[in-house]
Amino acid sequence: MTPPNFLVIVADDLGFSDCGCFGSEIQTPNIDALSREHNALRFTNFHVAAACSPTRSMLMTGTDHHIAGLGELAEFTRSSAAHQGQPGHEGYLNERVVALPELLQDGGYHTMMAGKWHLGLKPQHYPVRRGFDKSFALLPGCANHYGYEPQYEEQDHADRFFETATRALHVEGSQIAELPDNFYSSDAYASKLIGYLSGRDEAEIKKPFFAYLPFSAPHWPLQAPKEVADRYQGMYQNGPQALKSERIERLKKLGLVDQDVVSHPIVRVGEQESQEWEDLPEETRQSSARAMEVYAGMVDRMDWNIGRVVNHLRKTGEYDNTMILFMSDNGAEGASYEAQPIMGDKVAAHIAKYYDNSLENIGRGDSFVWYGALWAQAATAPSRLFKMHSTEGGCRVPLVVKPPKRTEASGSRITKAYCTVMDIVPTFLEMAGLRHPGTHYRGREIASLRGKSWQPYLQSLHLENEGKKRCKDEEFDIHDETYVTGFEIAGSGALRQGHWKLVFVPAPRGPQKWELFHMKNDPGETKNLCYAEPAKFAELMRLWEEYKAEVGSIGVAGEFPEAVQGQRVSLDDEFADPYSWIKFIGRPKLVPGHLSHIRPVMDPTVLVVTIGRLLIQIQANYNPFITAMAFWTLPSGLLAPAPPSGSSSSSQTNSVPSLSSRHIQLHPIRYAPRCSSILAVSPESLHGSYLSAKLPLHHQRIWCRNRPIFENPGGALSLDCPPLPGEPQFVHGHGASGDWPRCDHRSRLWPRMIGAIA
Question: Active-site residue 52, yes or no?
Fold first, then answer.
């Protein structure tokens, strides 16, 4: 029998009821069509981690994210001393696990992906190093969906939050990718995947394929084509509470929740969230509703792109033999929690200065908005809370499964069977006729699977058609009532066994203590039974301690110092207000900087050099999101001669003439290498030589050593400061051939040509 193809589609921060087949008013005809296939299933009890990269690590490995290297979001780990350096908290997919595409590749599959990776930023952690034959990947956790990056003023650069929130840093294979001017994330990822599918050679077409399509939509910043967002104009004018009520009624009508379900009330924190919709200023209501319209547009556009990929498979005749999964990576995003540790007090000011959040511009590439906790809780209802909380609202997400056509069933159905994202790896391996290697892979020790294959369950549906009964409690059709699942992220924790769930929600949205709920009777987590059921509470607490020790969890807030949530009980004031971005309306202002010589600036990670009218802003840091910018023009003319031997460096500081006989326009640079940011151009007047600047890791020492600008014998203008003992050695090469300066592996640079002549 021919092995099936696999297509896994992941939405980013999509709420439980954000698709039409899960009760949404948002138009998702292609996802809905998958759910209506004769053997398709809609899972209402599918669970993931409460944050994106932890879920993605579980999807790739079939084991717990604490084991796979993403015990926390990497953004959190860097801010928490308790998590830094701990096993399982490396911030990338570690060597303790083997990834699904590696196993499928070994088993004869052609593997490809296009979309968000978020499982490692360094070249050794790229998708191509974890089993993907072809890959086009967004490395960080989020980015501007249009690839927009503002050009900063002199001595002004992005707050740390925006270093990770807007840089559309992509790699294709092992190379940094340039983005086209018409880039839009969902369109680009679908197009790239279709290109990989259609570009297979004869040998590759003979292989079954594994295709991974992880969208970055609808993650903030909320951005969508205007014509798509406009389809939802006026739909959200009654506010989040009204939307929540409408969604719950549709969920009941579709049979996705029980008729008597008790929904968890919307949790409101702070004065701004506590205001009733009708009491908000008109401008605030209009802008907030528009943000929700744009969110709907993002989901709509994502669905359209899913349709493009599915239609391609239909045209090639591969659709029937393809197992297709559509899921979200976590619950709806409520408060930008993943940005909390890196937010500074300049975020709102930065938005005001460089983004245009006026009503008519919301959703464009130069806007920066989110929709906040109230809209998020409308999308996760009847569940409690949202992303970053180990409640049902954070961990229970929509899942549509379209098996290969040979898997028979009586028709599309809704299932309440409890399952998790860790089940996907064993399911695919069994369907492909492959085995997990167990505890060793390619000479190293690895973690075993914690998930369970769905294949017996899918086969049982066929048996049911023949009159054979399955488990009497549908919830345990896949995992029996003894199966234990643990959840922990950012100080919020939970443990599930059977119908019982232990939950810890940190302040300010929870009591910061353990609670106990019966999930079959109370899926909204509204009745704490820890005092009514002390024996069950004690039993699950014991299981929690076992789970924590087994996977390497640091624990929930209060169990370790400097908890990410809990001790830091609130976000920065400017982000505690869900409508704060509405207050800052203005258009980006671009001002060129003009300096005549090298000089230090306030930020020790920034060196600004101007040669004539060219401003080179060099930002040396391990953070790959920091961007080097080239502004305005470069004057042609003679370069400064090398300083005479033994001369005072200070006397040579201003030796570069400021000529303006001819100008060569430069494009802004989108990406820069880590540690040393280098700008190189090849103007005709320099006869093919390169203008460059380089820094050692301890770049701030340039000020005390005060090295001059000089022209080296190779014709390259360099700012050169030799490394101190113990620093990485930089090996540079210049020439008319276009070679980019290279370095040895210890400096961990990304050699890359950036900047271009217009």
Answer: yes
